[in-house]
Specification:
five-stranded parallel β-sheet; elongated; Rossmann fold; 395 residues; alpha/beta; 21 strands; 13 helices; eight-stranded mixed β-sheet
């Protein structure tokens, strides 16, 4: 798969080098096109070293007379980062006076523009009109973020998003067609916390990695993803809408609100099974002798959704067990009326909480089970979603 990365003449172009590296590392062929102004900020040799491919600059370079046509053939997407105010004005006007603008007119692949400029330039009515016109032409615009601008100009909207954010949007743009595109998918991730007193709580070792990887992967496939997350030990994902919760009851209410429109529900969180019966209003003091803590069961969130799920929704559960793993997983599959349950053994090395890998078995009601080898959690997420796609296709 090949992507054209256009770089225009802004100070943010230094970030584009890392974006090129991320794309290349993901196995994407990257053809970099620099405007003449961009070469004042970053050299072609940098991009050649990072992508292993020649860099294109001038419309009239010797032997390159038809680059604006040739480069667009079979390109999966065009990503322009940064896109300066001047370049967007020329693109909105249909100009073709350099290689990159001419390439846009010859291109039929999806286009992602990533503006970066001073906040006053971004807010100017002419820039806003240009952005609106470009969007009407079908170009996708990744809006700038707020943050420190060049030359100590303070903080405002105009800063180019980080390369990892642009990379995520680019990968969504070039993802193969998926039955999940346009579907509403709700994913849960992380632990919940149940208060003992104002400074202590009951929880577990869940980091949220599995749920976050699932949300990321579903979003890349074109789904509209809501991630309901307890306290995570990793950064929030790019793309999905994140709803943060703390307690099991809060997670249950958040899921309940999403059920009427959820085409897919993937319950990868590890909510606490117990909570203190009577949380103390003040910090409990340490005293001589043993202290007793009375616990009560929390709501079984997944089981409680059974009567409120959208008709035809695909529902996936998770079961982390320490004994009788498959038997316990099958019981939960039946009791909670699931389409699939992902089970794994918490005692197995490289699986379970707080690691980057997992070894799981996918259990199905019809017995078409699949045991996956030890894989990264990102790879496990893709395998799970492949099964979800098959289930969604059958509905």
């Amino acid at each position: 798969m090949r992507v054209i990365l256009g770089v225009t003449g802004g100070i943010a172009s230094y970030k584009s080098a890392w974006l090129a590296r991320l794309l290349a590392k993901a196995g994407v062929e990257v053809d970099v096109v620099l405007t003449r102004a961009a070469t004042e900020f970053v050299g072609a040799i940098t991009f050649e070293a990072l992508t292993g491919r020649p860099v294109h600059t001038g419309l009239f370079d010797a032997g390159r007379a038809l680059d604006h046509i040739r480069l667009t053939r079979d390109a999966a997407a065009v990503v322009i980062a940064p896109a300066t105010a001047d370049f967007m004005a020329r693109a909105a006007g249909g100009h073709a006076d350099d290689l990159l603008s001419a390439l846009l007119l010859a291109n039929e692949a999806p286009v992602l523009l990533v503006p970066a400029m001073n906040d006053h330039m971004w807010a100017h009515p002419q820039t806003r009109a240009n952005v609106a016109h470009l969007e009407s032409l079908g170009y996708r615009i990744l809006s700038p973020e707020e943050g420190m601008l060049a030359a100590g100009e303070g903080s405002g909207p105009g800063r180019m998003p980080e390369p990892e954010t642009i990379f995520a949007h680019a990968m969504r743009l070039i993802a193969p067609a998926s039955p999940l595109r346009g579907k509403r998918i709700v994913v849960t991730a992380g632990p919940t916390r149940e208060r003992i007193d104002p400074v202590r709580f009951i929880s577990n070792h869940s980091s949220g990695k599995m749920g976050v990887r699932l949300a990321e992967a579903a979003w890349r496939r074109g789904a509209e993803v809501v991630l309901v997350a307890g306290p995570l030990a990793i950064p929030l994902p790019v793309g999905p809408v994140v709803q943060s919760v703390e307690t099991t009851d809060e997670m249950a209410r958040a899921i309940e609100a999403q059920l009427p429109t959820a085409d897919v529900l993937v319950m990868a969180a590890a909510p606490s099974d117990f909570r203190p019966s009577a949380p103390a209003p003040q910090k409990l003091k340490k005293r001589a002798g043993n202290a007793a803590l009375e616990l009560t069961s929390t709501i079984d969130i997944l089981k409680s959704t059974a009567g409120a799920r959208k008709q035809g929704a695909v529902v996936v559960g998770f079961a982390l067990e320490t004994e009788d793993v498959l038997a316990n997983g099958r019981e939960k599959l039946r009791e909670k009326a699931l389409d699939m349950i992902v089970v794994n053994d918490a005692t197995e090395a490289g699986a379970g909480f707080a690691v980057d890998t997992n070894r799981v078995t996918l259990l199905m009601p019809n017995g078409a089970d699949e045991r996956l080898p030890l894989m990264s959690k990102a790879e496990v997420a893709e395998a799970i979603l492949d099964r979800v796609e098959a289930l969604a296709n059958g509905r």
